[in-house]
């Protein structure tokens, strides 16, 4: 079955069939679209994507690219000790936030008529080569917390439109989508302060020096500090800890808190990741501390599992569905209008109040 044969049976022009296949819905009435789609479904018509890519100026492919969270040198060193550990370290989808975002983005791009290609990278040249070889229509860079120089090269040398998630360079004309991380950090601390807490630990993903390397962690930390200042709580009296963004990292965090003497132990953990927060709660409970009676924990992201653990996690909620929609829509606008001006979209956040934040002990 060819496109022309479908057009003949549906009683429309080949261009109309092409518009339906390519999801140019604004160019076709709903009644006509349904009639054409019925013929397509009847014969199981599937367009030859490789042929279309060769004959068209557009491939309908969008790349989702993510930096590997460890360097090539670190992976090589791990491989000499434990090859399995090295392979696990390269897995960019072990983080619950990024895997959830990939799922949302793939769905949004599919609805817009695009095919998604997933790729990790160490260097900008890997991304640029991918764009050239596959004639990408566009590219979305997820969670570029590090690799500043490489991210800048992607933006300045890319052969297709690029949208960056959770990263912004004010000196470069770029398209970016993020959340109000400063407000999120402020809300997280403020929520605990309202329950009488004054002994805090700020728990970030990675080592504590990630605060200086990561835009989103730095913004959340600055918001957290602002809430402490507004409550007249000295920041120097509160600790900063860092753990890997995983449930395992969270359990390490919990064990670290348990090892502290009760008189110096924080009564509230402000955590920049739900995965760490959930792992920490599990370890704290196993070690005999009650959450939230003995210690409160607030996470960040509001991943689906946050509401399912016991006790359900109080967390700063990002609308990840809306974030993915904004990124996909912004990319399509630039694809359709290459002259479109740079744009930055910042989405608000809120607290999803559940059961891991309670009154500070003794208040």
Looking at this protein, list some descriptive labels.
6-stranded mixed β-sheet; alpha/beta; Rossmann fold; 434 Repressor (Amino-terminal Domain); 12 strands; 6-stranded parallel β-sheet
Helical proportion, percent range:
40-55%
Question: Which stretches are poorly predicted, pLDDT < 50 over at least 5 residues?
Answer: none
Query: Distance between termini?
Result: 75 Å
Strand ordering within the main sheet: 2-1-3-4-5-11
Describe this structure in words.
- The structure is a single chain.
- By secondary structure, the protein is of the alpha/beta class.
- It has 15 helices and twelve strands.
- It has helices spanning 3-10, 14-21, 30-43, 49-55, 72-81, 83-90, 96-111, 124-134, 148-157, 181-194, 210-213, 215-230, 247-258, 274-286, 320-336, and strands spanning 61-67, 115-121, 138-141, 162-165, 175-179, 200-205, 239-243, 268-271, 296-301, 314-317, 343-347, 350-352.
- Helix 9 links the parallel strand 3 and strand 4.
- Helix 1 packs across helix 2 (14-21), helix 5 (72-81) runs antiparallel to helix 6 (83-90) and helix 8 packs parallel to helix 9.
How are the elements arranged and paired?
Layout: H1 3-10, H2 14-21, H3 30-43, H4 49-55, E1 61-67, H5 72-81, H6 83-90, H7 96-111, E2 115-121, H8 124-134, E3 138-141, H9 148-157, E4 162-165, E5 175-179, H10 181-194, E6 200-205, H11 210-213, H12 215-230, E7 239-243, H13 247-258, E8 268-271, H14 274-286, E9 296-301, E10 314-317, H15 320-336, E11 343-347, E12 350-352
Parallel strand pairs: 1-2, 1-3, 3-4, 4-5, 5-11, 6-7, 6-8, 8-9, 9-10
Antiparallel strand pairs: 10-12
Helix pairs in contact: 1-2, 1-3, 5-6, 7-15, 8-9, 10-12, 13-14
